[in-house]
Amino acid sequence: MGGLGEVHRAKTEYLEARKINELIFHKYSSGQDPFDHAVALLNLTELDIHLGASGEQVGRNIERIKSMFAKIGYKRGQTLGDLVSGDLQLREANFPIAEKLLRKCVQASQGKDGEILVSALGMLANSERWNFLPSLDNWSIVFLVHVLKSREQLEIHRALQFLGEGFLHRHESETAKNLFIVALERFAQMDIHQNRAECMLHLGDISCRGGDWLQAVELWTAARPLFERCSQIKEVAKLDARLAGIKQEEQERCERTLSAINVSTAVAETRDAGSLAAS
Questions:
Q1: Could you give the CA distance from residue 61 to residue 135 in angstroms, rounded to a whole number?
Q2: Is 279's pLDDT higher than 60?
Q3: Which InterPro entries has this protein been placed in (predicted)?
């Protein structure tokens, strides 16, 4: 059951993953199976961050997780708690706290725990989540260099996506486009919904900036069900706003064109009427 939950989570099918992990959580009691119970709650808490659960609720669960791991002497559990807490603080845009927690995780896991290290570096490298703070620019390069050594394809292409977002923010659209295309191809092969949708969203933005509205609409429309699949409601709303904006602009352009035609027709009719009267 846990393996199926991991598959759903890897594909960013967060709601399905949560349902499975909730079953696992209730299967193990805190008294008889404290470690499995704590790990199940950790998994649920990570998923709740993606699914938009309240920060207060997630924060309480993180404290419970740390307490559970402390009771059984599981030292790695404290770093895992800091990692999830860093993710929450990042989601809540508490950037100084998030950075401090994630740097702490990097220091604690370097040379000891590759899984935590990759997760922490990946969060630090995701510059779009940090609103492109200049002080964090170098993390995307650090992340890419690290994952290239491990040759993990998913993480390598996530790193390329993050680099692309940085280039797009700096208006280097062509470089960003090339990076998104490479990343998108791999995400499509691996069926990773959220990253596919994010790349398509950005490629649509690039097309829109370049005046290719049809291509932009095609990309945004294709990205929408992918965001729905991974329960990213805010991203669906952003896409709907983009599509509505394009529709409004098209309508206004059509109205201007019709108005110009009507004016031209009226001028022509007036001219023809004047010609007939003169004859």
A1: 31
A2: no
A3: TPR-like_helical_dom_sf
